[in-house]
Amino acid sequence: MKASSTKSAAAGRQAYSLPDERGHFGEYGGIFVAETLMQPLVELREAYERYRNDPDFVREIDSDAATFVGRPSPLYLAKRWSERLGGARIYLKREDLNHTGAHKINNTVGQALLARRMGKTRIIAETGAGQHGVATATVAARFGLKCIVYMGSVDIERQAINVFRMKLLGAEVVPVESGSKTLKDALNEAMRDWVTNVEDTFYIIGSVAGPHPYPAMVRDFQSVIGRETREQIMVQEGRLPDALVACVGGGSNAMGLFYPFIDDADVELHGVEAAGEGLDSGHHAAPLCAGQPGVLHGSRSYLLETADGQIIEAHSVSAGLDYPGVGPEHSWLKDSGRAKYVGITDDEALAAFHDLTRTEGIMPALESAHALAYAATLAPKMGRNGIIVVNLSGRGDKDIHTVAKIEGITV
Amino acid sequence: MSQIAQTFEVLRKQGRKALVPFITAGDPQPDITVPLMHALVEAGADIIELGVPFSDPMADGPVIQRASERALKNNVNLHQVLQMVKEFRTNNTHTPVVLMGYLNPVEIMGYATFAKAAGAAGVDGVLTVDIPPEESAELSQALRDAHIDQIFLLAPTSTTERINLIADVGSGFVYYVSLRGVTGATHLDVAAVKDQLQAIRTRTTLPVGVGFGINSPETAAAVASVADAVVVGSALVNRIGDLAEEREKIMTEVPGFLATLRGAMDQVGAAA
Asked: Which residues, 6 or more positions from B191, have their beta carbon under 8 angstroms from its beta carbon?
């Protein structure tokens, strides 16, 4: 099968056209930053608008997707698992097979190529678990760009292997000691760096969050996932799926899968947030399920916040979902009813992690295990003619220490 | 004419420049803020910027981040900050107070509720760092209804188009961020600031304050020679942080430092 290219996506005109030109998805999104960043964001938006339709740039992305990332990623029918669940056929979109082991690289390749076109020589990024940091360090090495990754000091301790990985790739990892010393604070610090060094620096945001144009741009770079899925499911099943399921932290793998299907009203979209110890426990990472709208990190979206408007730290067994905000487009999709958002607890995700590993020989990332856990509840309700596609956004090797620790095993 | 506009008018007639100290409300303890505001006025402050603590102060350097963290440890919220302004007003009705902070605490209170409460407490101006004019129509209306000036930032990266936009919607004064960076940076190029201020002044009649990077009597005097107001934040907040355990020293040393800036600025004014 041939790679679904950016070109073929451009051909599929969508009726859905958000965000508007000021970056709004309904009342969400927008640009909420200090004045110093307003003009740099205009420049970024103009550059992105120019290059996204430039055949040369599109070719460059397609070529790297094929030869560096390893696209297209397979759409795999999890036959034994589906049969055991006794309902719909579940397909897995194998983003775990991408270079660096997750969907994150789709976005970092795109943004790094854009950075190069804009003449920027220095790349900065924030990272929580380290996956986006690794994906950024990887493309920085590939393109010969200087790379600085901001990471909360708490996360640095929790994710020592990814820190070393980034350093091996030539990146400088800067510990962030402010606030809760986790992902949200790393994002604040990266923004501060960008304000200071905006002249030569490109900020690669890792999710569909941040000020406009980031949510739309990251979605576009990730939507190769959904475009390939469309083509592949048509070949394999001859029709579109009944439901798409993806985990949502910031929400980039979910937007990447959902976006090319937004106009297909018959395709259900299910976003799965991390319910941590339970949505009622106060220890979760589920702003869409149990938060309220507010403004953080440059856009308006659902957030975890106190009654005073202070941001609350998120909790999840999966570091990649551990974020108190969510992409603004998900907020819009929730309010408009186009997508449904649910929570899956740590325990449920861990069970799905084991289940898929033993049944299919595929070890999912704990993030993706949230989506799997929900698909497992959905499949039996759908009957054997149903088709579900789950975005297997990353591989689970990175999580084996977490899983071992929880289960009291010394590796 | 607003209290802020009147203050600038009086200073202009005296040939003096406004000195605008910034402190974070509730740092390091909630009960020091009002007495410290009075002490800053005695030391020569013309307008006070009162920081509303926020968990994620994206535009601030480490000094003001830590001030926010100290205040949040005391659970200082926007309601309490307004209460502090109200208390300040029982002994001072003339020194304008500008609230400076981030949008989310305001958003969760509701724009109209906030504006009304701020007006009632005696707030004269509001500067919300992370709301550009493009997103501000509703908040701007609420503030206008409550007769509160809305102060916007201008930056070295602001284009002519953006300067015009901010000149249109801003009131009270405009706050020129003297460098590309966060609060508390140390390098300030007065010559570059002077050029930028000339560009700004051709597009607005609002007074122009300059902040970010002013940390000594010398820089304050140099900035006073080109701007209408000198905003000093991190240099004060840094001292507050260092003296967090020594309340008496905060009450003497912080206003004491401000007085040295006042002295240096007034010499420029006298010479001019």
From this structure: none
**What would the two tokens of residue A316 be?**
């999840």
Q: What ipTM, to 2 d.p.? A: 0.95
Is A179 an 8 Å CB contact of chain B?
A: yes
Interface contact A38-B108, CB threshold 8 A: no
Helices (H), A206-301: 214-222, 224-237, 252-258, 287-290
CA-wise closest residue to B171 among B135, B210, B124: B124
Q: How many Å apart are CA A189 and CA A390, to the nearest integer?
A: 33
Q: Model confidence over A143-179: pLDDT tens digits?
A: 999 999 999 999 998 888 999 999 999 999 999 999 8
**Measured between CA atoms, how close is A85 to chain B, in angstroms?**
44
Q: Could you give the CA distance from residue A65 to residue A326 in angstroms, rounded to a whole number?
A: 26
B49 carries an active-site annotation: yes
Confidence class for position B102, pLDDT limits 50, 70, 90: very high
| Sequence-distant (≥ 6) Cβ neighbours of residue B153 within 8 angstroms | A34, A35, A36, B127, B129, B174, B175, B176, B177
**Residue in B closest to A43 by C-alpha:** B157
Angle at A251 (CA atoms; ends A247, A256), nearest 5 degrees: 90
Supply the DSSP string of A78-139, one letter for each residue: -HHHHHHHTSSEEEEEEGGGSGGGBTHHHHHHHHHHHHHHTT--EEEEEESSSHHHHHHHHH
Tell me the pTM. 0.95
H-state helical runs in chain B: 3-14, 33-42, 62-73, 78-89, 103-109, 111-121, 137-145, 160-169, 190-201, 217-224, 234-242, 247-271
- Range B3-271: architecture per CATH: Alpha-Beta Barrel (3.20)
Q: Residue B255, preceding bond cis, omega within 30 degrees? A: no
Cβ of residue B104 closer than 8 Å to a chain A Cβ: yes
Contacts A–B by Cβ distance under 8 A: 127
